[in-house]
C-alpha cells in the first residue's frame, strides 16, 4: 500500500501504472503480469476510443449478454475470441513451426475423443450422402522421410455443413470421423464426402456483432486433422477447399496459404473404377510435415 | 472481400490488420473504429502475454462466469471495469474540467432518482444511528462567485457501510439521501452521520480475482454528490475522509487529491450547542466549483 501511495492517485495520465502498483502483492506472478499487461492495453484502447459513458455501458452490456449466452453446449466468448482473430493469434503463438513443417490452425468445437480407429482406405461417411471423396497423402518429417505409426485423427462436416454431433439422430454416430495409423511408408488414405461451408452459431450477441460489422458467419469447407507421432510435435490443423466461396473471408480467420488442398474432380471411368467408386469423385492429395519435438 | 484478399491471410505479424480489413464494410463507422481499436490493443496484449491455450481458456471461463454472475441487481462486468481502473478512466475522459473546477469521480450503483427535496440544514439521517455530522459549504463558479438555484443531490452509506437500498426493511427508505437547492449566496448545509468504508460485492469472480491479486475489496468512506445548475456542467463526484484506512487503496480507484474533505471532530460545548447537536459532531466544510457549460 505504501507503493500505491508513492504512485499517487489515479489520473488519466498514470491510470495503468496506478492499477499495476495496486496488484504488486499478488501471490501468483504470472496472473499479476497478465492482468497488468491487459490493463495497460485496455487503458490504451480506452484512451484511443474516448468512449462516452453510454458507449462504455453498451460494451459492458454486450459482454454481459455474451456470458449469459454460454451454457454446457454453447461458448459465446470463444466465438467472440474466434471472430476477433484472438483464437488464431493464440494458436499461432503456441504453434510456431520450423520452416517446412505443416502449419496449425484452430481446433474448433466439434472434435470428439473416442472416434473409431479404422483401416487405411476406409470410408468414414456412414450415410452415403454427398459427393464421394478420396483423401490421401503422406506423413513426413522435415527432411522428407516418411513417419511410421503416426496417428491421424480426422473429422469433418457433411455435404450440408453439419457435424454428426450437431445432428444426433439425423446423422449416424461418428459419421465423418476416423482415426488412422500409418505404416513404415508414412502414407494414409480414407474415403469421405466433399465437405461444405457452414456458419458458426450466429443467433447470439456475436452473430449480431458480425451483422453490424457487415460480416457473414461462414467458415469455408475444410477437413480437420490432429496428427501425432512419437518424437514429433502434435499438429492440429485443417485443409481447405481453395474454390470455396468463403475461402478469403473465413469468419474465424483459420485459413492459411499452406493449408490449401486441391479437390480434383475425377471423371475418368477407369480412374473411378480403380479408386473403387461407382461415379465421379473428388481426389484430395495432401502431405503433412511434422516438426520434431 | 477484395480488400481482405489483398491483405493476405492471417499471420502472427499482420493479425490485427487482417481483422480490421474484414470489418471494412460495417455500416456503423463508430462501432467499426471502436472494434478495430480494441482488436489492435487486445492482439498487442496477447502478443506480450503469449498465453498458453490453457491460460487463454482460463480467461474465457473467467469472462463467462463474470457474465453469468450478472442479474437485475448485480452487474459483475461493471465491477470488473471498476477494479481495473477502466470505469475511472472513462469518467476522467468524459469529465475533463477547466482549472479550478471540482473534479468528478464515479457515480456508483447506489444513486436513486427520487430522493426527497429538503430544506437547507435538514438531517438526512432518519434512524439516529452513528456519529452526527454537519456538512456545509458553497457552490461556486470558477471565478469564485456563488451559484444561485444549484441542485445538490447527496447520498451516502451509514455508519456500518450500507446504503438504504442494500438494507430495505432495516434502514428507513431514503435514509441518508436528500436533494437541496441553493439560494443567492450559494451556500448549502445538511446534517447526516459519519459514513464508513465498505466492500464492493466480493462474492463473485471479481472478488476472487481481487483475492488472487492480493487486494482488498474496500472503498474508503465518502459522500456522493450530483450538483447541477443552469449554465454549468453537471458534476458527479464524492468527497472522501482522508483519515480512512483505505484512502490510499480504494478498490475502484475513485479517490483524487482534490476530493479530500476534512472531517473535524467538534467537542467544544458551545460549538455543539450552536450547531444544534447534543454531543460532539464531525464538521465537514467543502466548497464545490462548477465549470461553465
Could you characterize what this model shows?
- The structure is a homodimer of 293-residue chains.
- The first copy, chain A, has 293 residues and is an alpha+beta fold.
- Chain A folds into 2 domains: 50 residues, no CATH class; 205 residues, Protocatechuate 3,4-Dioxygenase, subunit A (Sandwich), CATH 2.60.130.
- Chain A has 8 helices and 11 strands.
- In chain A, the strands form 3 sheets. In chain A, strands 1, 4, 9, 10 and 11 form a 5-stranded mixed beta sheet that branches. Chain A has a 4-stranded antiparallel beta sheet with strand order 3-2-7-8, with no helix packed on it. A two-stranded antiparallel sheet of chain A has the order 5-6.
- The relative contact order of chain A is 0.14.
- At the A-B interface, helix 2, helix 3, helix 4, helix 5 and helix 6 of A face helix 2, helix 3, helix 4, helix 5 and helix 6 of B.
